Amino acid sequence: MKKEIRNINLFTSGKAVSILGSSIYSFAISLYVLKITGSALNFATTLMLSVVPMVIISPVAGVIADKVPKKWLVVGMDLANGLLFSLLYLYSIKATLDLPIIYFSTVLLGVFTTFFGIGMEAAKPSLVTSEKLIKLNSLSKLIDSSAAILGPIIGGIVFALIDIRLFILFNAFSFVFSAFTEWFIDYQFNFDDVEDQNSIESSTGFTSDLKEGWQFFSRNKSILELFFIFVSLNFLLGFSVNVPAPYIINQLLKMPSSSFGIINGMFPVGLILGTLTVEMVMKKVEFRKLLISMNAFIAVLAALIGLPILLNMSQFNNLLYYSIINILMGIAIAYVDVPIMTILQTEVPKKLLGRVLSLIMSLVKVVLPVALITSGFLLGRVSVVFIPIIGASIAFLYSVFLLNQMSKRRKALA
After folding, report:
1. pLDDT, tens digit, for every residue of 189-207?
2. pLDDT tens-digit series, residues 10-19
3. CA dihedral 134, 138, 144, 149 (to 10 degrees)
């Protein structure tokens, strides 16, 4: 259908401009803070302030996404970002950009982007038919992965070659352009359910709406299963990969910083490869089986993080080894993210989708710092080779348990 294809094209162009603009600005402004203050702490604080709003604001954004038309939310948040950057540009002409105004604008950008992201995710099932939902999720993941790669690269170039004020002005126009394209999306293309049509009118107070989303989430065994897979994966990555891998590569194997940069760059490359192929794979493999199998596969890859310490390989072989591990891990994570999002968007009623997605995202984000702190605590007390294996064993056994449960359910239905 022409309207469906137009929706996909408008969605991808609007989200690409919005997400990439936010990613570039967050990195460029962090470098600017580092330049004017010379403080690594201030640099890290700026990066942190671009992430924290997502954890805090997501539940609120989820409720609002279910209460107001998605078009208003998506277009409104990009216009709000456009206004924010316009005001920031006018301020920068008359005064120097100082830390308080940078911190404040970074927080607002994080808030608006969180509302935009939740609104976009909740709107997806209404933009296309169920047959095209996988494609839309794949394209969405591709945009996120590309922004993760291009954001720091373009942000660094922008910081080095372009006056930060000009980039702020350019970003203002970019967000307005994004809002313009998103205005022409048909947000009710696949919005036929009468219950969903009346969801806005029948909604109650904020607390009741949030409670309704929590009750659906906490009482639905299928959704809880997906949630714990997500939790398992995030804990695995934080505990077994994010802390031990840099320590092993930099401190124990003494690999140069250039090699470490190449290894890190392979992960988003894997994500892009995964998003380009996941639609084809999902046509052949049942969604749940795919994401549970990939969770187990990622656990195996994580368990192998410390192997080069025992093998005593050359620097080149270590570089090749970790590059392959990161590419495979990126592909596997794409094979988890796209199916899990597609299942949620299919099984959760549209009227509750924003609340359920925001709850899952917020709760999962809390798991990561716990995993990082626990792994860091054990790093000086347990051999670093065993730390990836510990986290990987938990995730692998959980995946095996879920596959076994799935097999039992199929036999019971046979």
Report:
1. 876 554 444 444 455 566 7
2. 989 888 888 8
3. 170
